[in-house]
């Protein structure tokens, strides 16, 4: 019996082989199933990718159509812009050419006007030159005439001065030349040796200013050719009584070594005319004294 039981036992290697076969079968089945699952997922992924590609192709086609449409619009805009630019350029060119022609005409007109003006100015200059020459000639003649007149006046003044005389004044001082009328007074004034102040004095209560003094006529005797005056000088009143016609009435002012002279050369009833003669040396001395102060 022991021998029979040992013959029915399965060898250990067979068991190992069976186990290995079972493992191999299980692994194969698992791999098959896993491969099948992976294949399904891969197919799904491929389908999704194809759908995404189809969608992208649709988007690309749509975008391409939009781009083509936009490109067409841009081309139309460019064409319109080129047309407008060409039209504007032509208009500007026409305007510039027209303005250029106008400017040329204006320049030619201005040039013609300038030439005419220059011709006119040249004629005026010639006429002005002739008038100037005539005026210069006339002026030269006038200057010569004036010089002749001045020379005559000088000779007449010299002749008038030679006719004048000197007399002794009421203070006993030899006077200067005595003028008997306004013409002779003017001749003495032009000598420049003394100052001369003419007066025309009537009998009034109010005194009259004559040069540096004040005069008042008190009486004029036509029959005797005598007069009496009051004069104020250096804040002092001086009476000159019963003086005669053409008599130098002399008096001194403070700071003057030369006498002041009052000469009456025309006498009427209650009225006298004449002049006051004052030394210039006293004026210069007084001016020098005020400058030194």
Supply database-style keywords.
293 residues, alpha+beta, 4-stranded antiparallel beta sheet, 4 helices, 10 strands, disordered C terminus
Structural class: alpha+beta
Give the fraction of residues assigned to helices: 55-70%
Instruction: Let me know the average pLDDT.
Output: 82
* SSE string: HHEEHEEEEEEEEH
Count of DSSP-assigned helices: 4
Radius of gyration: 71 Å
Oligomer status: single chain
Q: Main beta sheet, described?
A: 4 strands, antiparallel
Number of strands: 10
Strand content: 15-25%
Shape: rod-shaped
Low-confidence region ranges? 283-293
Going across the biggest sheet, name each strand in turn.
3-10-9-8
Distance between the termini: 185 Å
How is this structure best summarized?
The protein has 293 residues and is of the alpha+beta class.
Q: Explain this structure to me?
A:
With 293 residues, this protein is of the alpha+beta class. It starts with a helix and ends with a helix. It has a four-stranded antiparallel beta sheet. Strands 4-5-6-7 form a four-stranded antiparallel beta sheet, with no helix packed on it. A two-stranded antiparallel ribbon has the order 1-2. The longest helix is centred in the first third of the chain and has 152 residues, at 12-163. The protein contains four helices and ten strands; from the N terminus they run H-H-E-E-H-E-E-E-E-E-E-E-E-H.
